[in-house]
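Justification of resources, computational component.

The compute hours requested in this renewal are based largely on the per-chain cost of generating structure records like the one below. Each record pairs the submitted sequence with a full structure-token output. That output is archived, and it is also reused by downstream analysis tasks.
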Amino acid sequence: MVFLDVDGPLIPFKARLSGPAAPFADDVGNPLLDRLDPADGRRLLALGCQLVWATTWMAEANEVISPRLGLPDLPVVDFPDGDEPAERGLHWKTADLVRWSEGRPFVWLDDEITDVDRRWIAAHHPAPALPRRVDPLVGLTATDFMTVRDWLARLSTAAG
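The structure output for this chain reads:
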């Protein structure tokens, strides 16, 4: 399973060198959508595992982001609106993603992952996990995809 954040990993904070994506017929007026790289959709699908939105875009990711990347509708992590603060230094998504994964291996692609999150996941999640911090200025790179593919291959080999 791969948990996907949108802002930073898929929509980098700096414009991509490859230029803007093709305009989309139902443009929702977000000027940053042209930073999406449609090739990211193909790269994500090629990973061959379940993709899950883990973003503040929530269900809107299926309406706005999925079509632009050529992705089907994906499951969405429904983050609670609770006022309960996360442990000191822990990202507000971390515990919810571990719960949502139900003990299954997962990759988490996000631009806000820290060593605190990595340690917490290692201590609280019984299966392998790859919390991968993506540089928010450039978004997902070939190196990010290679790292995820290699990790998934090792996981598959270990399983059997």
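Strands lie at 2-4, 51-53, 106-110, 129-133. The first strand starts at residue 2 and ends at 4.
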